[in-house]
């Protein structure tokens, strides 16, 4: 994966609308004559609120601004439904299909079928391993994990923890992003385990990023360690909240730092309350805009240069990619997420959170 300056360059280009467009020699010539209609399949609405509250909203916004037709559906974590939705969209005449796969196998089947029917394809947020998508649009997911590892280390230092036991609640084993997040936080935490500065505790993946399953797993982790867990690397806010619910049950919430991701209302409230150490904010508006721009160009038979590729470790392809930059959020900059319009003060500062919002400078 080529990173750093290239990522910034790609973002800059997109922001200024400066991507180079040229006609696509490899693709379907007839595509240029088609009126763009974009199909989007979101994965579920429980593993993270982002899909329905952010991605749907910002994708709709981007398509509306561009004046193109779209059909945004949610597979609700059902792989058969995912395939049916894709079939319906292809039959319904979409010119481009954008998917957030539920796993690489079913994602690949959908992408290959779309391709065989002359429909352009984009992997949105999750790379389909061994897949055939023409573009991949996401965040720099190893950096997301790195921010989580650094965040946990910072919060453990702030608490004055000595040789803390760190437990992992990793994302779904079928999500390539979960692998990348883990590579990122391992790059920060493994050297500390090796140096015996930290102790490696239980390390479990949570199938389907499911909150209730994560709570069960975390309770088992706590039992297995006789309550000796000093920090929790939870891969997103849903898993973080699951751990916090068990810490609350044991009256040790706030004492054990927990990480997260997605800047969900729940995650941000947990941060304001002091129960969660940090989250990672990903500006989904930019992700949706970048993906929508590419989908529209593909539908018109144009090919845009993203200036960056990601290697598919399974298929060996260099997939043209847009990777945006994530940002760490702690109590003192929760306000940035509100200022960016990702969540509103009304959503965040309800009930007991009103006072905490005031203290955190959210006005
Ligand atoms: C996304 C995260 C999300 C998780 C669960 C990942 O692929 O990148 O933002 O929290 O899936 O839906």
Descriptive account of the structure:
This protein is of the alpha/beta class and 363 residues long. Helices cover 44% and strands 18% of the residues. The chain has 13 helices and 14 strands. A 7-stranded mixed β-sheet has the order 3-2-4-5-6-13-12, sandwiched between helices. It has a 3-stranded parallel β-sheet with strand order 8-7-9, with helices on both faces. Strands 1-11 form a two-stranded antiparallel sheet. The longest helix is centred in the middle third of the chain and has 19 residues. The radius of gyration is 21 Å and the shape is globular. The N terminus is likely disordered. Bound molecules: beta-D-glucopyranose. The site of beta-D-glucopyranose has 12 residues, from loops.
Q: How many helical elements? A: 13
Structural class by sheet pairing and helices:
alpha/beta
Note the overall shape.
Answer: globular
- What is the total tally of β strands? 14
Low-confidence stretches: 1-31
Q: What is the oligomeric state here?
A: single chain
Instruction: Please state the average pLDDT score.
Output: 92
Strand order, sheet with most strands = 3-2-4-5-6-13-12
Helix content: 40-55%
Quote the beta fraction. Answer: 15-25%
**What small ligands are held by the chains?**
beta-D-glucopyranose
Biggest beta-sheet profile: 7 strands, mixed
From the N-terminal CA to the C-terminal CA, the straight-line distance is: 40 Å
Write the element-wise H/E pattern from the N-terminal end onward. HEEHEHEHEEHEHEHEHHEHEEEEHHH
| C-alpha-based Rg, rounded | 21 Å
């Amino acid at each position: 994966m080529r990173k750093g300056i290239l990522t910034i360059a790609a973002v800059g280009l997109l922001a200024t609308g400066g991507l180079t467009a040229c006609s696509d020699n490899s693709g379907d010539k007839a595509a240029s004559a088609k009126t763009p209609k974009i199909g989007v399949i979101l994965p579920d609405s429980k593993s993270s609120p982002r899909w329905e509250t952010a991605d749907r909203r910002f994708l709709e916004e981007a398509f509306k601004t561009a004046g193109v037709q779209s059909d945004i559906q949610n597979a609700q974590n059902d792989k058969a439904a995912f395939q049916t939705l894709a079939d319906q969209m292809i039959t319904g005449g979409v010119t481009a299909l954008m998917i957030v796969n539920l796993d690489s196998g079913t994602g690949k089947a959908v992408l290959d079928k779309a391709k065989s029917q002359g429909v352009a394809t984009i992997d949105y947020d999750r790379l389909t391993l061994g897949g055939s998508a023409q573009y991949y649009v996401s965040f720099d997911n190893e950096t997301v994990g790195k921010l989580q590892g650094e965040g946990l280390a910072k919060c453990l230092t702030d608490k004055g923890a000595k040789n803390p036991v760190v437990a992992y609640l990793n994302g779904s084993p079928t999500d390539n992003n979960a692998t990348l997040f883990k590579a990122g936080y391992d790059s920060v935490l493994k050297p500390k385990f090796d140096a015996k500065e930290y102790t490696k505790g239980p390390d479990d993946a949570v199938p389907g990023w499911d909150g209730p399953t994560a709570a069960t797993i975390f309770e088992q982790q706590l039992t297995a360690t006789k309550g000796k867990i000093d920090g929790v690397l939870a891969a997103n806010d849903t898993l973080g909240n699951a751990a916090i619910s068990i810490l609350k049950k044991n009256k040790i919430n706030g004492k054990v730092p927990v990480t997260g991701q997605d800047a969900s209302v729940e995650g941000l409230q947990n941060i304001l309350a002091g129960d969660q150490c940090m989250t990672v904010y990903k500006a989904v508006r930019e992700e949706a805009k970048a993906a929508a721009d590419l989908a529209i160009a593909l539908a018109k038979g144009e090919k845009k240069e993203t200036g960056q590729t990601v290697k598919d470790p399974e298929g060996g392809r260099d997939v043209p990619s847009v990777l945006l930059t994530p940002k760490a959020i702690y109590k003192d900059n929760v306000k940035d997420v509100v200022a960016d319009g990702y969540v509103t003060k009304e959503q965040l500062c309800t009930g007991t959170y009103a006072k905490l919002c005031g203290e955190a400078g959210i006005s």
